Task: structure prediction
Amino acid sequence: MRHLLSISDLSAHDAIVILDTAAELERVSDGQVKKLPTLRGRTIVNLFAEDSTRTRISFEAAAKRLSADVINFSAKGSSISKGESLKDTAMTLQAMGADAVVIRHSASGAPQRLADSQWMTGSVINAGDGTHEHPSQALLDAFTIRKHLGKGGSNLAGIKVAIVGDVLHSRVARSNVLLLTLLGAHVTLVAPPTLLPVGVESWPVNISYNFDDVVAGVDVVMMLRVQQERMSDLFFPNAREYSRYFGLNLQRLAKMQPHAIIMHPGPMNRGLEIAAEVADSARSVIVEQVANGVSVRMAILYVLLAGAPLESESKL
Amino acid sequence: MSVALSASDISRALIRISHEILEKNQGASNLTLLGIPTRGAHLASRIAQSIASIEGCEVPVGMLDITMHRDDLRIRPLRAIMSTSIPREGIEGRDVILIDDVLFSGRTIRAALDALGEIGRPRSVQLAVLVDRGHRELPIRADFVGKNLPTSPSQSVRVRLTEIDGADEVLIEGESH
Amino acid sequence: MTSSKFLLKGGALPDGTLHDIVIEGELITTVHAGISDPQATVIDATGCVILPGLVDLHTHLRQPGREDAETVESASRAGAKGGFTALSAMANTSPVADNAGVVEQVYRLGQEAGLLDVFPIGAVTQGLKGEALSEIGAMADSVARVRVFSDDGMCVFDPLVMRRALEYIKKFNGVIAQHAQEPRLTVGAQMNEGEISARLGLRGWPAIAEEAIIARDVLLTDHVQSRLHVCHVTTAGGVEIIRWAKARGINVTAEVTPHHLLLTDDLSCSYDPVFKVNPPLRTEKDIHALREALADGTIDIVATDHAPHTMESKECEWQEASFGMLGLETALSIVQKTMVDTGLMKWQDVADRMSKAPATIGGYDQQGQGIAPGNFANLTVVNPSQTWTVDRDLVQSRSRNTPFHGYQLPGVLTHTFYKGKATLLNGVVA
Result:
C-alpha cells in the first residue's frame, strides 16, 4: 500500500490492520512513551489547500510522534492560493524530497491526481478532498465505534449506525459508508431528499427521511455538519426547519438506546444540527474522536511509510 | 532439517535459565520479565511460572513489542505491530529480564533497549534467550542462554512452541555450508 | 501539395462495389472497373473503402483567440489526417464569431490553409450571452455564407431568444444548432449525474438538463416551422424525444459525437480531466440508445465536437479543468469500431452519416456528393482491416487531449483528397 486516497483502496483486512495498529499505538502513547523513532529521517508535508486546523494538527502530531520531519504548507500565504498549479506544487514537493504528502483540497480527486501523476513519487494521503472522501476521519470514527461498542471481534459486525445530515456534500459520509459497511456495520443515511446524491440507491445502506423513525434503533448517531452556504441554495427552507427535522436535540437523545453513542466530525454548528446540551452530554464521544485521530493517523503513516517499497506496489 | 532441541530439552533449558536468573539476581523480588512478541512472550510466561514454582512468588511479566524501533523497517515488507504490555509496577528501578527465542544479529535486542529507554530507567537489563545461533552484528551478548547452536548464516533456526505451533521443538533448516 | 491526376485502383465504394476512380483537376472524371492510365499517379486501394470526403458539422478550431491550443491550419491538418474535407468552425472563439468580420476571417484562414473547407458557424447571440441576437443576416450574406448558427458551449436558454432565432433564420433556410443544456440544472456540473458522480463527489450534470431543452426546442421549432439541429445528443431520453419529433414531421436533425458512442462516465473514476467533456460521458444504456438511433437515422450525423485544450487546462484538478476532447483524427475509427464492426451500420451508412447528411444540414453544396464522374473529388480512403494505436504525442492537432491515447483502433486512413488535391497521401498530411 502506497497511498490512501479512498476507503475503497482498502480491504477489510487492511482496515483492521490499521485499527489494530492504532490500538497498540494508543496504548503506547497512553504510557510514558510520547515519541517513537519509527519514521526518523522521513519528511512528511502537510499540504493544506483548504483550511482545516484540526486535521492538520492531528496529522502533524501523528507524524511528530513517529519522529518524522513535518513541513506545513497551508493555503494562506502559500503559492496554492496564488494560483500555482497542483502540478507545480507537486514538483516543488518532489524537489524537497517529501516522502509523503498529506493533502487537503477543495477539489474532489485532487489527491488521486497527485498520486497518479508522474509529478512526485512519495505517498499521498487524502486528508479530505472536496465532496469526495475523508478516509482518515472514517478510520478514526470506526476506531472510536469499535472501542465503545466492539463486541470483542475486530470488525463492526451487526453495529447499527445512522449518519444524519448533508450526505450530498459530505466527504465524511462517503468514506464512512464505505468503511463501516466494509467492516460489517449496518448504515442508515438520514437526510432530506435534497441532501442525498442521485445514485445513492446503489450504496449498501438504508435511506430514511425521518430521523425519529431511526434514532431509537441505532447504536451510533453520527451527525454531519451543515455548511452555511447550503442555507441559501434551496436544499431546505431555513435553519429552523432543518433543525426541527434533522437536528439531534434532547427529545431525540431521550429516545436513543442507553448504550448508544453520539459522534460528529466537527466543527459543530451548535443549535443547528446538534443541540449544545447533546453535544456536551455523556453519550457524546466527540472530544474523544479528536484524541483518537492522532493514534489512527499514526497507524496510517506507519502502514504507508514503514515498510519497504515493493517493486509492484501501487495502491493496495 | 534437523531437530536441535526436543520438548524436554526446551523444558530443562527454561528451568535452568530460571534458576540462573534467580541466582544472579539473588531472588525474584526486584525482577520484571519482558518477552519480545510473539515467541519470546510465551517463553517469558513459562519462565515466570517456573520462577513462581521455585520461589513461591509471582514475578511481574509483560511484553515489549519492538517493531516501531527496528532499524530495518525500510528494507523489509511491512510488519504488523504486536502488543506491548508493561506490568503495573513499571520498569523504573527494576531488574528487567528481556526474553526472546533466538539471538542472531542482535538488532532486535538493540531495538528492545531503545524501546525500554522510552519507557523508563531500569536498574539493570539482562537478556535471556532460548537459542544463541551466533553471527552477531552488534556488541550484544546474552546473560542466560538455553543452548548455543553453531549455524551458518544461510541456515534458519525455527523455534516452535506449543502455544502457537502445537509442539515444542527447535529446528535447523538448510545446509550448514 | 500534390494536385494532378490520380488513379485509385481496386478500392470498394461505400455500396461495396469495386471500382477504379480517376481524379483530374478538382473533379472525379471516371468511375469504372479495370481502368489503366499511364499518366496518372496510381494509388493501390486494394482492400480499402473509398468514402466521400468526411464533413464535420461541429469543430472547435480555437482561432482567433486560443492559437496556443489550435489554429485553423493545425485543425485543417488534423482534419485531413482524419479523412475530413470540410470542418464547421464553432463560434465560441475570442472574439466570438457573432459578426461578419470574424466569420470572414476564419473562412479566409481556412482557404489559406487549403487542406479542406472551413465553414464558419455564426453565434446565435452576441457574445454567446443568450440575450441579443448577433448579426445573423450579415453573417449569412458574408463571403463565409453562414447557414449554421450556434452558441455551442452555451445553451440558447431563453425561450424567447430561441424562438426569435429560429424564426429569423428562415429567411435564408438557416439552422440553429442548439447546445441543449438547461443552465440552472447544471450549475457547477462536472460529469453525468448518477451512481459514479455520487461516489466521486463531483457535481452532477443530469440527463434531464439536456432532454428538457430538446423537448422545448422541438416544440418551438414546430410552432414557428423552422429548422433545428441538436448538437451532441448524449442521452437515451434525448433520442426518444427526437424520434417522437421526427415522427411528427418536425424539421429537426441531430448529431452524436464519436466519444459518446464509446466512452462511459466510469472513466471519471481516474479524475483524469482528459475525460471531462460537455455534455458529459454517460452510461452504457445511453450508448446503446445512441448507437441504435444513429443506425436507424433518428440521429442524422456524427460530428466530432473536436475541442483542443492546452496541457495546462487539462493537467490539473478535475473541477478546474476545461471541458472537451480531441476528435478529428479518431472519428472514423471510432465509428467503424462502434457501428460498422458491430454490424449496426454498413459503409454506405457511414458515408451518409459522416459526409452526405452533414453537408446537407450545413448547406455545403460542394461537399457530401456521391462518388461519380463530374462531382468534386472529395474522397477518403480507409483500410478497415488494418489497426493503429492512438498516440497523443503524434497528433496533428496542437493539443494532446485525446481520450483514446493508447487505444488500438480499426481503420487506417491512407488518403484524403480535397477537390482533387491529396491532403493525406499514404498516411502523411500534405
The domain at 52-362 of chain C is CATH 3.20.20.140 (TIM Barrel).
